[in-house]
């Protein structure tokens, strides 16, 4: 054969990778997040003070940024830089775990709803409709209190003010949007001939899920996963901002708690207390959002940039 | 069409009842109204407490209690708030009026600017302004409202007056303390910052929807047909493109009301703006059941209303949709 | 011979793609004479649509068009968008392949036709409406008055294609480009649509360029045929001449792949069309050609007269004898 007729074949994975790295924001996002994760993981070395430690003997409160407190100090003289590292750690843990749990639940419930159809499907979809239409913050607050009041759930949820509680709470919400996506994929897939063919030759349902559903849905699921991470981080800080997040007891902190403290600081002009936590939150959210966007571009072959 | 709307409205009544029942149960478990009452009024006599339980439908049996509450609610026999024993209806009405004003201003600004930016970006996909709008929109959705609110406050409440010696945009309330009576100028100045905070969210979301929707439309066959007629590019875009592009945007818009309300709640709280959000957060913090329930009913109702509105405008935009 | 109404010379179209320039049309010459029905055939991706979209000025910004296209003496290549708009829909119009998506779903059918009328004439709205109904009647839509008030989704595929035709002929254009107007329709409807096109060709004196894959259709309704392969014309001439005695191996392959040629079995052409990102040197068909020789690779062969028709095969006369 004539060799100039041959088109260089690229594997789909390779093409997805190329599309991903062509998203400049996402590349920067991965870079920033990697640095953050390293910083947080190495907090014994990167943080300069303990979570509850004052930078110097009083007077040490509301110090503006300086050599022994790079980002200034808070109302009781703690180093904002070190506390940001601890705070980001808590926020990333919450984001990661609640996203993983809710995506897992969402896949399970969505797949069952899609395959089974009928009553179960109807009920699940009604519930998600209801919850997704209602103002999220209101639902979150009411559900938080409700969950906290149910004493027999305590062994699972942990204490109302604990990080575990927040993760469980977010998982209870997070599965819904994922379940919708997976259900949609299942329904679309059911229509396709090769599934019928697989059925006809007696393939088991589990085989179909593993061989067809998962490979086809992995893209949207990954995208949902990244967006749930952002969602959880932002929700945690919203709750914390209004005093409903994990409690600051024993000096523990989270991005939300730090941003919440910023609220009290603005009117007095201690700008560093407002600016740095806000900046950290926005940078994390933006990085993950960019990554999610690039993943969507990369895994959705219909999305072709430029006409 | 009218028949459809009437039927949908009729259907929304059982939905409303069902959802408010869920809300009722959730609030009773979550806020423990009786305990809250005792906490706020520690010296209340047993008779008072019994009366409170009765008028609010706080019967230990949820179903019976709910119907008791419902009857009182429908007959407009609303119990007073547990804190300060205030009348609920006037408080709710004021809050609603303030929120509607803020919400409308923010939606009008947000939707208009968002749609325009989306169109602007979609006209040259991959071009410099597309990238700029897209990036800005991403930054917008990554900034939670309390962050922009705090930064605005810091800038306008502290630094502006420090640098320029005057207040440009006040950062709290609807009027300065002591102001009585109506003053449009003052009101607008107080609304600028909260409006901007909410609008930023809306702009970011709508610009993205509009951009992707219009991109889909621009690559469709009928746009080529339209262009092959020899009509002006502007006419092609406005007459043939926009209406089609708006169809999916409208559907998503109705579903988005919830998140706008969420943004309002946060913003109002930070700017001490006396609206529905501030009302909710303080009532929720106190566990004030008599204040919370009517608020919830109103929210559920508006969610249903916006869904209906979306379906109607959807059908109005898209002749392929028949409302049955 | 009279001067052609549409005269295309050495038309070249290059798409600027992310992976490099893609030469979709590599220097084609076409003459369309007033009132005739001319066929353009060729495999998918050979550049049929792109050639005429280029003449209509309907290609995306990523396309570069060079060469010349004279419509009734006016140069179309390099026209300003404004001049181009006054040509499109008035002197030359186009019908697309998929009638299901060619009409705007949110506007009434009648309004879509009147828009075409009013874009180029100073017709009153009333007169335009009346004319739109007339046009619908011409293309064979029953109860055209009521139908004009309906939306595209209320029409069947064949009916929609009639609407598209009515729209295209609204201003009695000199040239009508029908880009696979029947491909998306089922067989019985195809015949009706062709009949409508033939009727307007006669009634309006419009020259029709029929782009198609369907050689059966070509044999039935066209006088002359152009065969396109990989962005070039490889053969052109009288339909009957070419069908009886194809001079280019590609045309022969095309005809052999037809079930109704009498051979009784379908012989698809082996191999695939070349990748136009890196077009081959010389004759583009040589990789799939049984008769290819060394010389085929040296230059793109020009069309030269062979018997009744013109052929771009350097061995045309030699092979003709052999058949
Ligand atoms: N907008 C575009 N950008 C890049 N390449 C394009 C574009 N439009 C068409 N092409 C390429 O130009 C070549 C010719 O396409 P064209 O649509 O003219 O084929 P065709 O002969 O009409 O095929 P079909 O019979 O399938 O309609 C193809 O290789 C196609 O990939
Ligand atoms: Mg084509």
List keywords for this structure.
heterotrimer, A: 307 residues, mainly alpha, MetI-like fold, globular, disordered N terminus, disordered C terminus, B: 324 residues, flat, binds adenosine-5'-triphosphate, binds magnesium ion
What does this entry look like structurally?
The complex is a heterotrimer of chains A (307), B (324) and C (323). Chain A is built from twelve helices and no strands. Chain A is globular, with a radius of gyration of 23 Å. Chain A is mostly helical and 307 residues long. Chain B is mostly helical. Chain B folds into two domains: 2-74, no CATH class; 88-317, MetI-like (MetI-like fold, Orthogonal Bundle), CATH 1.10.3720. Chain B is 78% helix and 0% strand. Chain C has two domains: 6-222, P-loop containing nucleotide triphosphate hydrolases (Rossmann fold, 3-Layer(aba) Sandwich); 228-319, no CATH class. Chain C is built from twelve helices and twelve strands. Chain C has helices at residues 48-56, 81-87, 99-102, 109-120, 125-138, 144-147, 157-168, 187-204, 215-221, 239-244, 249-256, 316-322, and strands at 6-17, 20-32, 37-42, 63-71, 74-75, 92-95, 175-179, 207-212, 224-229, 232-238, 304-306, 309-311. Chains in contact: A-B, A-C, B-C. The interface between A and B is large, with 45 and 49 residues. The structure holds adenosine-5'-triphosphate (ATP) and magnesium ion. Magnesium ion binds at residues 48-49, 179 of chain C.
Q: Which structural class do the helices and strands of chain A define?
A: mainly alpha
* Overall structural domain count of chain A: 1
What name is given to the CATH topology of the largest domain in chain B?
MetI-like fold
CATH architecture of chain A: Orthogonal Bundle
> Uncertain runs of chain A with pLDDT below 50, 5 residues or more?
1-7, 303-307
How many strands in all of chain B?
A: 0
List low-pLDDT spans of chain B. none
Pair with the biggest interface: A-B, 45 and 49 residues
Q: Please give the domain count of chain B.
A: 2
Strand content of chain B: under 5%
